[in-house]
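A protein record pairs a chain with a discrete description of its three-dimensional fold. The shape at a given residue is found from the number at the same position. Here is what such a record looks like in full:
>
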Amino acid sequence: MLPQRGFTLFRITASKVCTTRLLSSTAETVRTQYSNVDLQEVENLSKQSSEWWDPCGPIRGLHAMNALRVPLIRDGLIATGIVGKERIGKPKVLENVNILEVGCGGGILSEALARLHAKVVGIDPSEKLISVACEHAKASAELSPDRIQYHVETIEQHASKNTERYDAVVASEVLEHVNDKVLFVEQCVSALKPGGSLFITTISKTTPSWLGAIVAAEYLLHLVPEGTHDWDKFVSPGDLQRILSCYNCNTILEHGMFYKFWANQWCWTENTDINYAIQAVKIAET
């Protein structure tokens, strides 16, 4: 049965925008009290922890996606002036840039950014995946604790203690697992410095995305485990941009992404019907 159109995705009210939520920081609280953390989603992803760093395993698509999302972040920060143009092409291009990755999993993207000398903090509600990330980073002599840190936290918890700390906040392949998109974006933006960028890659809410990301990827081709995605949690680029604008963020870039599963390769496309990427800049309040 095809998913229904004509849905109401969000209701953004004044009380939602203005409400401040005070949150605690224990792992037990992460697991049991936050409505924005779907425990089943966390458990499904945690089951893949032992194979997270296998580039030919069930997470191979995320490994391959680094070929797009690392340049997306690097070039986006250069374009907005966070990174000086004199650093273009240099190994330490992101030196001293503070980056938060929300929903970092086992650290595939966080490590790649840290290797460009960014100061990266990765957070995730899964203790198993954070343990995998920590152990993998420890195995690399070049990834010192001042370059990369991991915490078992939600964005709500982390943002409450790190207001306007980061030059960039990254949420890659996370938003499609989140219950409350508005709260999630609000908290990501609160951790971002004015002038900083929020980078999001996610899945659009269309019939092609249901067919491609769920029917084909999960049940026909078995590219990811069955039950990885819930179409009701997908969000269109237009709806996401409207949420971002409510939190004083200007979307400056939108790209479609296409996965060539037969080659385990991602490429940019103008079509945003399935996967897409967005960069939005936080505007300084006047």
